[in-house]
Design goal:
The protein is built from four helices and no strands. The chain is mainly α. It has two domains: about 40 residues, no CATH class; about 80 residues, no CATH class. It is globular and about 40 Å long. The mean pLDDT is about 85.
């Protein structure tokens, strides 16, 4: 898939982006761009992780988070599965905060939870 902003992506990123697209982990944005330097929210992060782990199109049942009603339908199954697997946890009063920015520390914690699931 050729993104409208491909020229803004460094050569260092283009191969990884192409592999992620081919694997079905990312799709890009509705406007045809990839937004290499854009921020992602927690719902997007959960969806990408679920796809990368082969947990696609999970049942969109309740996630168990206090703010479950605020999780977009397209991400609800992924969020529920990532919580069930112990990969993603809530914040504060068991809230997922789906629209919140995914901080680097959160991404690192998620990565560690994937690599060493017994350390949850």
């Amino acid at each position: 898939m050729a993104f409208a902003d491909k020229a803004k992506s460094g050569a260092w990123a283009q191969r990884s982006i192409a592999q992620a697209v081919q694997a079905g982990v990312v799709n890009g944005c509705e406007d045809g761009s990839f937004r290499l330097n854009g921020e992602i929210n927690r719902a997007e992060m959960a969806a990408m992780i679920a796809k990368a782990l082969g947990q696609t199109d999970g049942a969109a049942g309740a996630s168990g988070f206090a703010d479950d009603q605020d999780i977009p339908g397209w991400a609800k199954g992924a969020v529920a599965e990532m919580k069930k697997l112990g990969i993603i946890k809530g914040k504060g009063a068991n809230e997922f905060i789906s629209g919140g920015k995914a901080a680097r520390a959160e991404a690192e914690t998620v990565s560690l939870n994937i690599l060493a699931p017994n350390n949850k």
